[in-house]
Write a structure and sequence with these properties.
The complex is a heterodimer of chains A (99) and B (373).
Chain A lengths: L1 E4 L15 E3 L3 E6 L2 E6 L5 E4 L2 H9 L6 H8 L5 H13 L3 E3 L1
Antiparallel strand pairs in A: 1-5, 2-6, 3-4, 4-5
Chain B lengths: L4 H8 L7 E5 L25 H13 L4 E5 L9 H10 L3 E6 L6 H8 L4 E6 L5 H8 L3 H14 L6 E6 L7 H10 L3 E6 L6 H8 L3 H12 L34 E2 L4 E3 L10 E4 H4 L1 H7 L1 H7 L13 H4 L4 H6 L15 H7 L27
Parallel strand pairs in B: 1-2, 1-7, 2-3, 3-4, 4-5, 5-6
Antiparallel strand pairs in B: 7-8, 8-9
Classes of the chains: A alpha+beta (99), B alpha/beta (373).
C-alpha cells in the first residue's frame, strides 16, 4: 500500500504500533488519483501512498496517542494488519517517526 | 523501486502536480557543449523577471511540487540565482540544480552548503580533461573540478557528479565512480539524447549496442548510481533499473523554460511539445488542462512494439529520442535493445528529423567556446 522509491539511506526506527507515531515535519503529502504522494525533503524519499484510506490515517495520525489507537479509530478491524504493514514501510523510510 | 504496472498505468494518466519539474532559469551559457539539450548560449531578452520567477515559486509551492530541477543554460549566470533558489527552499520546494561549475567559487560553495533541501550536480563528460573537453569545450573540465573542490572544501556532503553517457565516457564508468567517491559525492549518469544541439552529435557519440548492454549490467550492480530514470529503454536487457521506468513527459514531469514556455519534458524543447506559456495563465492550468498534456496522458497504444514481449519493461522508450530522430511516438525507441529502432531508423530518411524550433546557440563554432568567462 506504500512503496518507497528512493535509494537514499535513512535512519529509521522499527515500527511498534504501541508508540506515538507522527508524520515527519519534513514530509509533504499531496493527494493524487491513486491515493497520495509523500515526499521527505530531508532524505529525498518519494513514497506512493496507494489508497485514500492510508492517506486519511497519515493526515490524522498525530491526533492519537499511539498508531494503534489511530488504526482502531480509523480502519476496519479486518484491514488492520495491512495498514500496520504500510505504516511499518513508511517508518522504514523515515516518513513517520515517533514523536 | 520499480513501479508495478498497475501503478504505472495510473501515473501515465497524469498527476495533480508533477512529481518534479525541470526549470531552465536562463538560456545564457558561457560554455557551448556539443550535446546541449536546450541549445543554450545567448540569454533570451524575454526571460522571466525576478518577480515573475519568485511568483512562480509561490505557485509551485501551493501546488505542492516537491522539488524542481534547476538548469539552463548556466543557472548561476542569473544575478538573482540565489534569490530564486533560496526562496524555493524556504517555501519547501526542494532544488536540485545543475551547473557547469564555472561560477561556483568558494563563497558560492559555502552559501550552497548552508542550505537545506538543495542538491548540486556538477557536470563533466569524461573522467579526464581531454575526453570531457571534447564535448564541453576547452577548460571546462578543470573549471568543474575546481567547483567540486570548493564544494568539498565547504563541507557540502553528497553533491552529484553528473555525466552524460557517450561512446567515450561509457568506457570510463569505473574511473568516474572513483572520481565521485573521492569527493564523497554521488555519480549521476544521464542518457545522451538527440535533443537540441545533441541531434548533430547523436549518431557519433551515442553508445553502441554492446556498450549499452555493458552499461545496463554495470548499473544493475550499482543501485547507488543515480540515473534520473534515464535508461529505462535498457530495462528489457534484464533486471529493471531503479526508477519508475516509464516516459514521464507531461505525466509526472515537465519543463518550464526561461521565457515561461512549458514543454512536456526537458528533452523536447520543440513547438510540437509546447503546452503553452505560463505568463498568460499561470502554470497550474497548463499542467492540468492543456491539450498537449491531455494527449500525452491518454492511454497509448504499443504501436509497432505490440508484438514485443518486453513492452511492459520499456513502454516503448523515450518520446524525445523518437521525435528528434524522425520516428513516430508509436515506433520503438531508436536505441531499442533488440535493434527494432535501428531497423526503423534505417528506413527513415534523415530529412524527416524535425528542424529545431528554439535555438539560443551563440554564433560561434560549436565545440570551440574560447576562453571561459
Amino acid at each position: 500500500m506504500a512503496s518507497v522509491a528512493s535509494t537514499s539511506p535513512a535512519v529509521a526506527e522499527a515500527f511498534d504500533a504501541g508508540r506515538p507515531w507522527r508524520l515527519s515535519p519534513e514530509v509533504t503529502l499531496r493527494e493524487e488519483p491513486f491515493g497520495a504522494l509523500a515526499y521527505h525533503h530531508g532524505n529525498r524519499r518519494l513514497v506512493f501512498v496507494k489508497s485514500a484510506g492510508l492517506l486519511g490515517v497519515l493526515e490524522r495520525l498525530g491526533e492519537y496517542a499511539t498508531a494503534g489507537d489511530a488504526l482502531t479509530a480509523l480502519v476496519a478491524a479486518g484491514e488492520r494488519a495491512r495498514y500496520e504493514r504500510a505504516l511499518a514501510a513508511l517508518a522504514a523510510g523515515g516518513l513517520i517517526g515517533v514523536g | 523501486m520499480s513501479a508495478e504496472s498497475g501503478l504505472r498505468d495510473r501515473l501515465e494518466g497524469g498527476l495533480n502536480a508533477p512529481i518534479c519539474l525541470t526549470w531552465e532559469l536562463t538560456y545564457a551559457c558561457n560554455l557551448a557543449c556539443t550535446h546541449c539539450l536546450s541549445s543554450s548560449g545567448r540569454r533570451d531578452p524575454d526571460e522571466l523577471t525576478t518577480a515573475e520567477a519568485l511568483a512562480l515559486v509561490d505557485e509551485l509551492a501551493a501546488m505542492r511540487v516537491f522539488y524542481v530541477n534547476v538548469g539552463g543554460g548556466e543557472p548561476m549566470i542569473r544575478r538573482d540565482f540565489f534569490d530564486i533558489v533560496e526562496h524555493a527552499v524556504e517555501r519547501r520546494v526542494g532544488v536540485k540544480f545543475s551547473t557547469n561549475g564555472t561560477r561556483l567559487d568558494a563563497a558560492a560553495a559555502r552559501r550552497l552548503a548552508a542550505m537545506d533541501y538543495l542538491d548540486v550536480q556538477v557536470s563533466i563528460d569524461g573522467a579526464d580533461a581531454a575526453t570531457s573537453d571534447r564535448v564541453r569545450g576547452a577548460g571546462s573540465y578543470a573549471a568543474a573540478r575546481r567547483a567540486m573542490d570548493h564544494l568539498a572544501g565547504a563541507g557540502f556532503a553528497g553533491f552529484k557528479v553528473s555525466v552524460v553517457v557517450t561512446r567515450e565516457s561509457v568506457e570510463q564508468l569505473d574511473a568516474l565512480e572513483a572520481l565521485a567517491s573521492g569527493y564523497g559525492a554521488q555519480l549521476r549518469l544521464a542518457r545522451l539524447r538527440p535533443s537540441g544541439r545533441g541531434v548533430a552529435v547523436w549518431d557519433a557519440l551515442r553508445p553502441t549496442a554492446a556498450q549499452n548492454r555493458r552499461l545496463h549490467a554495470w548499473l544493475v550492480e550499482r543501485p547507488h548510481v543515480l540515473t534520473g530514470d534515464s535508461f529505462f529503454h535498457l530495462s528489457p536487457l534484464g533486471a529493471p533499473l531503479e526508477g519508475l521506468n516509464l516516459c514521464g513527459a507531461g505525466r509526472v514531469v515537465c519543463l518550464i523554460d526561461p521565457v515561461g514556455d512549458v514543454y512536456a519534458c526537458p528533452f523536447v524543447i520543440h513547438d510540437r511539445f509546447r503546452a503553452g506559456n505560463l505568463r498568460a495563465s499561470g502554470f497550474g492550468p497548463l499542467w492540468r488542462e492543456s491539450a498537449l498534456f491531455s494527449e500525452l496522458r491518454a492511454p497509448n497504444s504499443p504501436g509497432a512494439c505490440a508484438s514485443c514481449g518486453s513492452y511492459d519493461a520499456c513502454r516503448g522508450g523515450c518520446l524525445a529520442a523518437k521525435f528528434f530522430t524522425g520516428l513516430e511516438a508509436s515506433d520503438p525507441d531508436p536505441e531499442c535493445v533488440f535493434g527494432h529502432g535501428e531497423r526503423r531508423l534505417a528506413t527513415t530518411r534523415v530529412e524527416l528529423r524535425p528542424a529545431p524550433s528554439v535555438d539560443h546557440s551563440r554564433a560561434v563554432a560549436v565545440g570551440a567556446p574560447g576562453r571561459l568567462r
